[in-house]
Amino acid sequence: MRRAFLILSLLLVPIAAQAQAQTDWKAKVAEALPLMGHRNWILIADSAYPLQTSPGIETIETNADQVDVVRYVLAQVNSSIHVRSEIFMDAELPYVPDRDAPGASAYRKQIAEVLNGYKIDSVLHDKLIAEMGQSSQSFHVLVLKTNLTVPYTSVFIRLNCKYWPTDAEMRMRAQMPSTK
Questions:
Q1: Are strands 120-123 and 141-145 parallel, antiparallel or unpaired?
Q2: Whole-number mean pLDDT of the chain?
Q3: Mean pLDDT, residues 32-40
Q4: What one-character DSSP code corresponds to residue 177?
Q5: How far is CA 28 from the centre of its chain?
Q6: Can you give the pLDDT at residue 23?
Q7: Where would I find the beta strands (DSSP E) of the chain?
């Protein structure tokens, strides 16, 4: 009986750890989002995304499906009163073949469905990583690593002000005298 209990316990530990990880990253998003504003970033990354050491970058292991994490984060941003999403993805993704990265086509289809209606800017991966390093010198970057093992699949979300649209900013700046 003790042996059966021990085996059952060993089988349940990974399940409990995964459930804790799911709760922790969602709690982190809920905690961080009200503090974040325009120029902050939330990055939903594949499992090989590098651990960057810039001071403003915080990395959380989600142990979760990437599409689910993207869906969750976008829902949280969309329900906020203060920020909106600007989406950036790796320009390399459309060229990743299934023969070299099984699941690439399936991922492209899934993420296209989730991001339907969003404007997506395609930027080379190295430029996006450099942008994270540069931005994190002054602004917080939250990196949520997922269990996805397909390259060039990270979704970079730059937050912008929800209640002050870009066109309003441009109109205001056009009215201001030039200051040098």
A1: unpaired
A2: 90
A3: 97
A4: P
A5: 13
A6: 58
A7: 41-45, 57-61, 83-90, 120-123, 141-145, 155-161
| Tokens at 126, concatenated | 């190295």
Question: Beta partners for 45?
Answer: 145
Q: Is the pLDDT of residue 19 over 70?
A: no
pTM: 0.84
Amino acid at 159: L
Q: Among 16-25, 45-54, 104-113, which is the least confidently predicted range?
A: 16-25
Give the residues across from 116 on adjacent strands. none
Give strand pairing partners of 122: 89
- CATH number for 38-175 (one of 3.40.190.10, 3.90.550.10, 3.30.430.20, 3.40.1650.10): it is 3.40.1650.10
Buried b (16+ CB within 10 A) or exposed e, 73-101: bbebbeebeebbbbbbbbeebeebeeeeb
Extents of the domains making up the chain: 38-175
Which pLDDT value is given to residue 27?
A: 96
Q: What is the DSSP letter of 178?
A: P
Question: Quick check: 180 pLDDT over 70?
Answer: no
CB 83 within 8 A of CB 77: yes
Kindly give the pairing relationship between strand 155-161 and strand 41-45: antiparallel
Centroid of chain to Cα 174: 33
